[in-house]
Amino acid sequence: MILQSPWFILFAAGLLVVYYLVPGKHQWKVLLAGSVCAYFQVEGARVGFLLTTFLTTLVCGRKIEQARERGERAGGWLAACLGLNLALLLGCKGSLLLPLGISYYTLQALGYVIDVYRGTEKAEKDPGKLALFLCYFPQLIQGPVSRASQLRAPLTEPHAYDGKQVSFGLQRMLWGYFKKLVIADRVAPAVEILTRDQAGGGSFALLAVLYALRIYGDFTGGIDIVLGLSQAFGIGLPENFRQPFFSGSVAEYWRRWHMSLGAWMREYVFFPVSVSKPVRRLGKAARRRLGAFGKRLPVYIATILTWLATGLWHGLTLNFLLWGMLNCLLILIGEELAPLFRGLKGKRWYTGCSILGTWLIMDLIRVCDLFPDPRDYFRGLKSLLTGPWGQIPDLGLSSLDWGILALGCVVMTGVSLVQSRWGSVRELLWKRETLRFWILFALLLAVLLLGCYGVGYEASNFIYNQF
Amino acid sequence: MKKLRAFFCAVVILGLLQALLVPKYTGNVREGNLIREYYDNAGGNDVIFIGDCEVYENFSPITLWQEYGIPSYIRGSPQQTVWQSYYLLEETLRYETPKVVVFNVFALKYDTVESTGDQSRREAYNRITLDGMRWSGSKWGAIQASLTQEERQWGGALTYVFPILRYHDRWSELTWKDVRYLFKRETVSDCGYLMQTGVEPMTDPFPSPPLTKRTLGDNSWRYLDKMVQLCRDKGVQLVLVKSPGLYPAWWPEWDQQVADYARERELLYINMIPAQEEIGIDWSTDTYDAGLHLNVSGAEKAASWFGRILRDQCGLPDRRSDPQVCARWEEKTARYEARKGLLLEQGDS
Amino acid sequence: MMKKRLCMILACLILGLTACGQEEQTVSGGDPVFSAGGVEIVIHADAAPILEALGEPTSYSETPSCAGEGMDKTYGYGSFYLLTGLGEDGEVVSRLWLADDTVATPEGIRIGSDEEQVEAAYPDAACCEDGSCSTYWIDGATASLAVVLEDGKVTAIEYSAAGQTSCD
Q1: For chain C, which residues lie within 8 Å of any Cβ of chain A, measuring from their own Cβ?
Q2: How much is the average pLDDT of A155-165?
Q3: Are both A169 and A33 inside the same structural domain?
């Protein structure tokens, strides 16, 4: 069951009705039943993976807590749980046959166990509640990666029906479908063609821009659907994006794009590494020998390891490793150069240039995803300098398609601008009932008529299910 | 109240859009209207033909009336599969109880949805047959039995409930005909018969792929069993027929199996292929596509020959003495002759 | 207690990993290929480049499908026939059958080969008794190869889309 299938929408609608009909203390069971059904429907054959992660997390979480309470060491349990689940994740990533959601639920499971080990979370006594935390169906498919402290309580608490929240949730889903079906899926075939038939600088540049459009529509649209549906259930998931294409530096971009993954990596890779004994010792030694630069060495090491992990999380192939390292390199360079530009901060033209520059750089780095062999990627980069410029293969997009894409970009940019300046668009429209109704109806018509879905269109999955 | 009105407006707009976007089948694929045309003609038929293009292009009901006084209707649609035939029969028998149902056995060669060949074409045929049916349990059953893999993935039966989900992107192909036939389609058939007046003589025989599957499939037999049962329950005589044609091949192995099946169940099975000479089919004048299907002159010959069997072996009465039935059929005959005249004229010019 | 739990975890791990392994096997198994005129022909392939490589056919005929634009085209090349139909993205190969014993499948089977040769060439083929003959089905993911034997000798060889195949 994919997010854009009519069955998913019917399924979610049915679940929503049942959810608000049962007493509050049983609501989470409705979600659990729905999630399990959805998972079996999609991944029935490979449910063993999720089950393994669930059981190990359940057992290790409790064991660790018991050990802590008795004042014993629990590191063995933690290591066993981490090792096993990471092995499963990496093993599956290596075989390129990913069970649905494994990248996301594994991170959530590991985060939970580490939190229990640190004592910041209580171990879950109720297996059902832990299962729901791991397989909650809207977010299982493509995140966001929630922390136990963010998600456990909202998932299982009773939620009284709140018309505004439900309406907001559904509105957000509709907006997500617009981005996914009208924009992302319209560009998708063109991106594939450009990836397959590299025809020089012009086509590579176009690829970078179109891929940015595609992944933006696909990923933020998908997250809008997930967060919107959750909001309709009364569950607030952490935001995953904050107008990422308005970022002024690569580091800022990564604080505004796929925020939940960034937060997870910061919490469970970056901080532990930078405060770990060997790294601290190395830092001390480096400061004595190298001065100011040496002082930053622990941070650098942690950053590099974090990006290594982030790259590998996306895929066990060379291009993702390269992609991670490129991001890391640009962030570090940005940090080193930051003092030089301090004086320019706040100047309008400088802000504009840095946003545009960051966007272009990120477009170029992102394309790395598409070429399993990094040599193809470098060839493309080189062709940006050498050309040829005019050769662009037939992308199968009609002028009408280009018009729709252009209009879609204008609408998406407009909405982002309004959001960054005045906050939630839905909140702004809430009081103006008639206007809101017809705007939403127009949006529905746009999705219905202009969306690329149904028989005859290649079933195009959300990109981020693949991770 | 205001909210309700806005909501009502939105639903009406959506409904109109859907009506506008569904294909009207006015161009080359007039077949798309065959199934839906039945409902205006339901009732009073002694014979119902069920099957694929080999019924709706190879038998002329008007001839059956003119020569034998047998009122009949063809519930045919392109590449109609046996499971679709079954549900169409089930539906038809709710509208009327004919004396005889004639089923063309060619479709038995398709055992599963996948075995019908190219799946995107299969989907188009599904649409043509299923979208024309009125809503009933039979339509739902037919949809469930017919969906291709890709259709299932994309909402399946839901796209038949709301065809806009299937035709949402047809806005770029809309023509004035979509407005003109928004609510009422033009009638393309004569009692389910789709007239072809062209002539393209058969020249060389088509090279036929080898026979790789000698036994007709279990699923086909299962649905044929269900048709037999349905007719028994309603007291309707089921006649199996293999319509005349040179290609695609109707292998002797298959013919034998159907003949055995019919004998065991005491059904009448008529293979018209060996009788082609007796029927008087001349493959240089009676086909519009070089031997696959008959044109109107062939269809009239086939009906004329088959009518004698219906009269002599099934004992169907001559209704021409009933003035009411006569009046109705005279009207139909006039329309048929007018259409024939028009099409022949168009063909000549 | 600890040991029991550990065993459980290990069992789960093994379960998970074996599931991983099983999955890999089902993906392999490409569609059967026929090779002629320097091109490889598979069912569902784009017809244009194949027709170009094969050159002028010795016979050609068109058969309209039941309705619509779909026109089946049969190209004869003496020793084999190629049938194409209109797919979603234009003309695609939908069937291919051998007409005489001057050509063979890439695995060396031709009309007139005997059962032993067929079994040796296609050890994984499924054999169906079908009336008086037996048909060997070599199934790929989306296409199949059928080898029909009568009295122990191959009488027909056909490539077609999967689904028309497999034993009942």
Answers
A1: 5-6, 8-9, 12-13, 15-17, 19-20, 23-24, 27, 88
A2: 92
A3: no
